[in-house]
Amino acid sequence: MDDSSRAEWRVSVLGRALLGFSSAFCLLAAFGLVGLVIDKGAPAALFGVAAVAGLAVWALRTAFRPFLILTATELVIRNKTGPIHRIPLATIEHVCPGYYGMVIAEAGGVQHVAEAVQKANLSSWLGRETRADRAAQQIEQAAAEAGAQIQPQG
Fold this sequence. Notes:
With about 150 residues, the chain is of the alpha+beta class. The chain is about 45% helix and about 20% strand.
């Protein structure tokens, strides 16, 4: 991978659309509950406003925050919560796509999960190659080119 090469993965377009729609629905429900509090004086509905608004924020963060960036020297992971992780390619031992995200194992036993690229269980059961499999192969290839000792999957 040369210095100008860069690959980036985010939540799929379909995933972002569905989560964005869900978030918009939750925000409309929150505004409806606020109207109920104002019109009827139902303070108990404030808990519902907070819960529904929190669900909307969670959906937006899940849809638009996670990414996985592969550069010539490192892999950058940002999930919906937590800090950004920068992993030197030469330290990567194994990349495995799964339901909760892509697990990246580093030398020394440290593991990171990249939530932006996930593999559906059905695809795993049927042995189908997915975007997550192709991303894992690309990351392992770049890591091997950077001098990493890639461990076979098993």
